[in-house]
C-alpha cells in the first residue's frame, strides 16, 4: 500500500473491519475513556496518592469512640500495639542485644562528642534520653538510637563556623538550639506527610556522602592518634594533611602513637573476626569497651599522661540537667541555629530511614516512614530540652543490635538504662582514658561506612549515579560536609530535571511472526512497516518536555524519511505515535500535539495515535483534539493501526 | 492452574515452548539487550540529546574552510541566508507591514515608557535600534520587536522599588543596567544552549501571568484616564482601587475623563471591526495613531491643558545618544541591576519565544530557539549601550505584522526607519498629546492579553494547570508582578516534583478475544487472570519514586488479594510487572526491585517482569538482579507471561 489512502477509503475499511470482515484482532475494541470523575474525586485521589499512599486512615473506618482513641494512641505510640504481645522470650533477646549495644555505644559516644566539639557527657545524656523516647514512638524493631559520627561531624564543623570559641557556653547553647530545630524539622516532615522529600537524596548521593564523611572523620582522628597539639580546624583533606606533615618533626607524641596503633590493630582484628564468623559478632561489639578499659588502666598505672599522652580528663558525673532555658529563640544565633538544625535534621533522618528500611525489608515488617520521622523528631525535641544533641539511628550499632538478636525497641530501653547507670556510677573512671583510643574507636567504626562494593556497583549500573556519588564524596573530602551535601542534592535534582525535560523516544518495529511492536534498537530483528513510522514516547507529556517531544518526533520522521528514500523505499505516509507510556498530558502537551498534527499535515503525513491512556484520552477529548485528528485515527494498539493502514505483510527489508 | 508451579515444571514448560510445542506467539523472542555502548558514546549521546537536540552542527559535516565560515556566518546572522532569495514581492509585503506596525508602535511606545517610569523618547530609541539588530540575527519571520507592556510594567515596579525617585538620573542608569544584564542573560541561555529552561514556565503559568499583568496594567491606567494626581505607587488591585475611590471627590478631572473615554470607545470599536473582518485589521492597527493625532490637535486648539488635562509636555528630539558609560558595573546598584535584569530578561524571552513559536508553527518554518535567544540577547545588550530599555517580540504588534502580510524581518527594518524619522522630525508635535489617550491606547492593547478562552480550556483539560494559572493571575493582581511570577514558577515546579515522585501504576487485564492487556480502569471489559496480578509501572524508576513504586505495587497486591479471597477465587501466585513504560532505572530503583522480590518471596508470590526496555534490561543484568529473579521469569510481552504461567482460558469472572 504505497498509495495514499483517501479518508473515504479508510472509513470504509474501518467499517468492514468493525462489522467483522477484518482479521480477528482487537479492532472491535475502541479506545475507551474511563468512568468520569468529579473534580472533588480527582482532587481527593491526587491528595491521597501524594500524601497518604499508605492509607493510614483505613483502619479507623467503621470504628467508634473509644476504639478510635485506642487506635490513634497505638499509631502514635506503636509500643501500645506490639507491647501487648510482648513476652519473656522477646525480652531475653532484647536484654542481650541491649547490653551489647550499650557496651558498643558508651565508648563510641564519648568519641563522637569530640567530633561535635562537645564534652563527653552530652553524648551519654543523648544515649540515655533519646532511645527511651524512640522506644515508645518508633516503628522499627532494629534501629539502635544515639549520636552518630556523620551528624556529629556536621554539627561540629557548622557550629564552629558560627561560634569559633568551642569552649564557650554560647557554643553549647547553639548546639541545643540546632538540636531543637532538627527535631522540629523532622517532626514537621512527618506530620505534614512530606517524608517523601528525603527520597530526593538519592541512594548514590547518600553512598558518596557517607563515604566522604567517613574519610573526613578518619582523617580528623590523626590528631588524636598522633597526639598532634596544633591541628587545623578545617576538615578538607589538604588542610588536614598539611597539618599532619607540618607537625611531623616535633608535634607527634610517640607514646600516643603506640597506644593508638596497638588498639586500632586490636579493634580491626576484632572487627575482622566478627565479620568472618557471624557468631562471633560480639567480639567486634565489645572490643571498643575492652580497649577503653585496658587502655585506661594502662595509662593510670604508667601515668603516661605525664609523658604527653592526652587523656579525657573530666567526664561529669550524674544525670542530664534541663536545657529548656538554653535554647536561642531570639537573637543573632536563632538564624544559624535553624539553618544548622534543618540540615542536620535532614541528614540524621536520611540515615535513620535508610537503615530502618534495610532491616524492615530484611525481616519483612512494615515501616511507617512518616511515623519514624515523628518519633525521631519528638526524641530530638525532647533531647534538646534535656541537654542532648542530635540523635538518630546509627548504621553500626543498628547492625550489632540486629545481630545480637533484638526483637523490639525494648533493646533501646535496656541500653538507655545501662547508660544511666554509667552516668550515675562510673563516669569518673574514664578520666585516664587516652584520646588516642577514642580516635582508634572512631576510625574502626567509620570504616564500616566506606562501601567500596556499593560504589563499584554504581559504576556498573548507572554512570550518572556514579558521578553523583563521586561529586558528593569529593565535595565532602576536599571542601566540607555542607558543600558535599549541596553537590549531592544538586546532582540528584539535575537528574530529575533531565528526566522531565528530555524523555526518551523510540522507533518501533514488528517482531517477526508476532503482532508485537518493540524498540528496533533493542530488538534489531524487529521490522519496520512500509510507508509508516511508529514512534513511542516514553514519558508523560508536560510543559517541560512538550516542545522537545514534538521536535524529536519530527526529527525522527526527517531522518527516517531521508534514509528510506535513499534506500529506494516508498515515502512515509503515516506517523503512528504509540502513547502507552504517556500517562498524562497537560495543556502545553495538547498544544504540542496540535502543532505536531499541523506540521505533519503540511508534510502530507497522517498522524495516528495508538493506545492513549485513560487520562490522556479524556484530555484529548476535552480539548476536542480528537475531532481534529479524527477518532478514526486513534486505535487501541499499534497492531490495529498497521492492519488498518499498513499493507499486511508488506514489511520493510 | 491454581497450584503453584515448581521451578522444574516451569523450566520444562519453557523449553517445550521454545522448541516449538507451545503456541505460535512471541515465545521464541527473548528479551534482548541493545548493542553495548562505550561510556564515551553514552555520555556523547546524553549531551547531544540534552543540549543539541536539533543537531546544529549537522550542516557543517564534510564542509571545509570558506564554506564552514559562510555557514557559521549564516547561522549567527540568518539574514545572510534568507537575504539571498529576497525579492521585490517580499519587499512589498514587508514595506506595508513595516509601515503598519510603525503606526501602531509609536503611540504604544510612548505609552509603555510611562509604565517603565521612563521618558517617552527612550521607548522610541528602543524601537529604532533593537529591531535593526534583530533583523540581522533573528530567525523568526513574523516577530515585531519593541518595548512591551508586561516587561515595561515589571521594570517600572521593580526598579522603583530600588530607587524611589523615578526622575533621578540613577533610575535611568539602573534601567540601562537591567537592560544590559537582561541581554546578557538571554544571550547566555542561547550560547550555553540552555534555552529549554524557559520551558519550565508552563503554558498555564504564562497565561495566568499575562492575564494578571494585563489587568494590573489596565488598572494602572485609571490614573491617566481619570486624571488623578495623587496615585499609589503600588500595583496591587486593593491599593489601586483605594487610590481611585479616595480621589473620587476632588481628584478626578472631568475633561480628562471625557477625552479618555471617547478615544477608548473609538479604539475598542476599531479593534472590534478589525477582529470581525480580518481584511480591516488595519483599522485597528492605525487607530492608536489616529487617536494621538486627533486628540493632540484637539488639546492644542482648545488649550485643554490649562483646564487640568495632563499632557505629555516634552519629548526629546533627535536620535539616541550612547549610554555605554551609564551602566553600573560596580557599586550598590550592580546587584539590583543584575537581579531585575535576569527576571526581565527571562520574562521577555518567554513572551518572544511563545509568540515566535506560534507563528512559526502557523507558517510551518523552523524556529531555532537558541538562535532566537542569542538574537534577542544581542539586541538588548546593544540597546543598553544606546539608551534603549528591554525590548522583545510583542504579542499585539507581531499579530498585526503578520496580518499586514510581512514576509521577513525586513518589516522590522522598515518600522525602525519610520521611528528614526519620527525621532528626527516630529517628536515635538507630541507635546500636547493628552496622557488620557495614552492610557486608552494601553487599555485597548492589553485587553488582547486577556485570554478567557485559554483559561476556560485550561479548566476543561487540566485542573492542575488551571490552579497554576489562577495562582499566577491572583499573585500578580493582588500582590505584585514578581510574586505572581514566583507563584507561577513554584506551581510549575511542584507539578514536576509530583510527576517524578508519585508516578501512576495500573492493573492490567486482557481485552476479551485478544492477547492485548490494558488498564482495567480504562477498559472495564478487560479480564484479569486467575492466580496472577499484572501491574504496569508508568514511569522511569528513580531514587525519587523507587520506594513509592515498590510500596504501591505491594499495596495493589494486598488489596487485590483480599478482594479475590473474599470472592472465593484462588490466591495470587504470580505478580507480573509490565515494564514497557519504564524507560530507565537507577541504583535506587534496582534496590527497590530487589526488595520487592524479597517481600514477594516472603509472601510466596513469584515476581515476573514483562518487556523491560533496553536500558533497563542492561542495568538489571549488570546488577545481576536478573540472576536473582531468574532469566526464566523475564518475558518480552505480558501475553507470553500469561501463556506460560496463567491457565490459558481460565480467566477471572
From TrEMBL, chains A, B:
Domain STAS: 522-645
Domain of life: Eukaryota
Membrane topology: Multi-pass membrane protein
Localization (cell): Membrane
Membrane-traversing stretches: 171-194, 200-219, 252-274, 280-301, 340-362, 374-396, 408-430, 436-459, 466-493
SUPFAM superfamilies given in the database record: SpoIIaa-like
Gene Ontology biological-process annotations: transmembrane transport
Keyword Membrane in annotation: yes
Example of a GO cellular component annotation carried by this entry: membrane
Keyword field: Membrane, Transmembrane, Transmembrane helix, Transport
Protein family membership: Belongs to the SLC26A/SulP transporter (TC 2.A.53) family.
UniProt-listed NCBIfam families: sulP (TIGR00815)
Protein name: Solute carrier family 26
Organism: Vigna unguiculata
Amino acid at each position: 500500500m504505497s498509495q495514499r489512502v483517501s479518508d473515504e477509503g479508510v472509513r470504509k475499511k474501518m467499517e468492514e473491519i468493525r462489522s467483522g470482515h477484518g482479521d480477528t484482532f482487537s479492532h472491535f475494541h475502541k479506545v475507551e475513556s474511563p468512568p468520569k470523575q468529579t473534580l472533588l474525586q480527582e482532587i481527593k485521589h491526587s491528595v491521597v496518592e501524594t500524601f497518604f499512599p499508605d492509607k493510614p486512615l483505613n483502619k479507623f473506618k467503621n470504628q467508634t469512640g473509644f476504639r478510635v482513641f485506642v487506635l490513634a494512641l497505638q499509631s502514635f505510640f506503636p509500643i501500645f500495639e506490639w507491647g501487648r504481645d510482648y513476652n519473656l522470650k522477646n525480652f531475653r533477646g532484647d536484654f542481650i542485644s541491649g547490653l551489647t549495644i550499650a557496651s558498643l555505644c558508651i565508648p563510641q559516644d564519648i568519641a563522637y562528642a569530640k567530633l561535635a566539639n562537645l564534652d563527653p557527657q552530652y553524648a551519654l545524656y543523648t544515649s540515655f534520653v533519646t532511645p527511651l523516647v524512640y522506644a515508645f514512638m518508633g516503628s522499627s524493631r532494629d534501629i539502635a538510637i544515639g549520636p552518630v559520627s556523620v551528624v556529629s561531624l556536621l554539627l561540629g564543623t557548622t557550629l564552629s563556623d558560627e561560634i569559633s570559641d568551642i569552649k564557650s557556653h554560647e557554643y553549647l547553647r547553639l548546639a541545643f538550639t540546632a538540636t531543637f530545630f532538627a527535631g522540629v524539622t523532622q517532626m514537621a516532615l512527618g506530620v505534614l506527610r512530606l517524608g517523601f522529600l528525603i527520597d530526593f537524596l538519592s541512594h548514590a548521593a547518600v553512598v558518596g556522602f557517607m563515604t566522604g564523611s567517613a574519610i573526613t572523620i578518619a582523617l580528623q582522628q590523626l590528631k588524636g592518634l598522633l597526639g598532634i597539639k596544633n591541628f587545623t580546624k578545617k576538615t578538607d583533606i589538604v588542610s588536614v594533611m598539611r597539618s599532619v606533615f607540618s607537625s611531623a618533626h616535633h608535634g607527634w607524641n610517640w607514646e600516643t602513637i603506640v597506644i593508638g596503633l596497638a588498639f586500632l590493630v586490636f579493634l580491626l582484628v576484632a572487627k575482622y573476626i566478627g565479620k568472618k564468623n557471624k557468631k562471633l559478632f560480639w567480639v567486634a561489639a565489645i572490643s571498643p569497651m575492652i580497649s577503653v578499659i585496658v587502655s585506661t588502666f594502662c595509662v593510670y598505672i604508667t601515668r603516661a599522661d605525664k609523658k604527653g599522652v592526652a587523656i579525657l580528663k573530666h567526664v561529669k558525673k550524674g544525670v542530664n540537667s534541663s536545657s529548656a532555658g538554653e535554647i536561642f529563640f531570639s537573637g543573632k544565633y536563632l538564624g544559624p541555629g535553624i539553618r544548622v538544625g534543618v540540615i542536620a535534621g535532614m541528614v540524621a533522618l536520611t540515615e535513620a530511614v535508610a537503615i530502618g528500611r534495610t532491616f524492615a525489608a530484611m525481616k519483612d515488617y512494615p515501616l511507617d516512614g512518616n511515623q519514624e520521622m515523628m518519633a525521631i523528631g519528638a526524641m530530638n525535641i525532647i533531647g534538646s530540652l534535656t541537654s542532648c544533641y542530635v540523635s538518630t539511628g546509627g548504621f553500626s550499632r543498628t547492625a550489632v543490635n540486629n545481630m545480637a538478636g533484638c526483637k523490639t525497641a525494648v533493646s533501646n530501653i535496656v541500653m538507655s538504662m545501662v547508660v544511666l547507670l554509667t552516668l550515675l556510677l562510673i563516669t569518673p573512671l574514664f578520666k585516664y582514658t587516652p584520646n588516642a583510643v577514642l580516635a582508634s574507636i572512631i576510625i574502626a567504626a567509620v570504616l564500616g561506612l566506606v562501601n567500596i562494593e556499593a560504589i563499584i556497583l554504581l559504576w556498573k549500573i548507572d554512570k550518572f549515579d556514579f558521578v553523583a556519588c563521586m561529586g558528593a564524596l569529593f565535595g565532602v573530602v576536599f571542601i566540607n560536609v555542607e558543600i558535599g551535601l549541596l553537590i549531592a542534592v544538586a546532582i540528584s535534582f539535575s537528574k530529575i530535571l533531565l528526566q522531565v525535560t528530555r524523555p526518551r523516544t523510540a522507533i518501533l518495529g514488528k517482531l517477526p511472526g508476532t503482532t508485537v511492536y518493540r524498540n528496533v534498537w533493542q530488538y534489531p530483528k524487529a521490522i519496520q512497516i512500509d510507508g509508516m513510522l511508529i514512534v513511542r514516547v516514553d514519558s508523560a507529556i508536560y510543559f517541560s518536555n512538550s516542545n522537545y517531544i514534538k521536535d524529536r518526533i519530527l526529527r525522527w520522521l526527517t531522518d527516517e524519511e531521508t534514509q528510506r528514500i535513499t534506500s529506494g523505499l516508498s515515502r512515509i505516509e503515516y506517523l503512528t505515535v504509540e502513547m502507552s507510556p504517556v500517562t498524562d498530558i497537560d495543556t502545553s502537551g495538547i498544544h504540542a500535539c496540535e502543532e505536531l498534527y499541523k506540521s505533519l499535515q503540511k508534510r502530507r503525513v497522517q498522524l495516528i495515535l495508538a493506545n492513549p491512556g485513560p487520562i490522556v484520552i479524556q484530555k484529548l477529548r476535552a480539548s476536542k483534539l480528537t475531532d481534529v485528528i479524527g477518532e478514526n485515527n486513534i486505535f487501541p494498539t499499534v497492531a490495529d493501526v498497521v492492519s488498518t493502514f499498513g499493507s499486511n505483510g508488506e514489511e520493510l527489508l
